[in-house]
Amino acid sequence: MMTDGKDILNLIRHTKQVVLVTHIKPDGDALGSLFGLADVLQAMDKKVFCFLEEEVPQLYRFLPGRQQVETSFAAADGFIRAADGDVLTIALDCGDVKRLGKYGSQFRARHPFMVIDHHRGNNGFGDVNWIEPHRSSTGEMIFDLAETLDVKLSEAAATCLYTAIVTDTGSFRYASTSSHTYRIAARLVECGAQPG
What we know:
- Helix content is about 40%, strand content about 15%.
- With about 200 residues, the chain is of the alpha/beta class.
- A 6-stranded parallel sheet has the order 3-2-1-4-5-6, sandwiched between helices.
- α2 (about 30-45) packs parallel to α5 and α2 (about 30-45) runs antiparallel to α6 (about 155-170).
């Protein structure tokens, strides 16, 4: 399910505060997409709140942006209330609302709620949905989003998105790896990605 691309871009461009969430037991694509998109949005002068139900797993603590993570739902709720309606919640790399964990339904109750995901079977549980099952990873989608928004990727964002892609392609071995995936990986290295 896909919302019109212009609607997605307009919503991102015109909202000043953004809450980013991802699935429980997050992997490299979930975390890389979360931190990579946070960096992109901050480059656009947006306030960003990154929520995880649990701490960043040890394996991914090298990722830039991990220090932004909040595990307190009360803090997330406070951020949303302080935004006074000018806030967008984005769920990344998550196939359904249950995978968001114990606070998933509370985040989903916020409007507008956007889903950016590449999982087959995601029927679009957001108000706004960008779901492309042919993609290798959500990180690949975030790279394309940054390009469309004309945001120059920092080394930190490049590292996060490279990690996202490497994780969900099994180091470029899975069938979902396309020529576009390889081109993005090369661009991320050119932007200064520092894998692992």
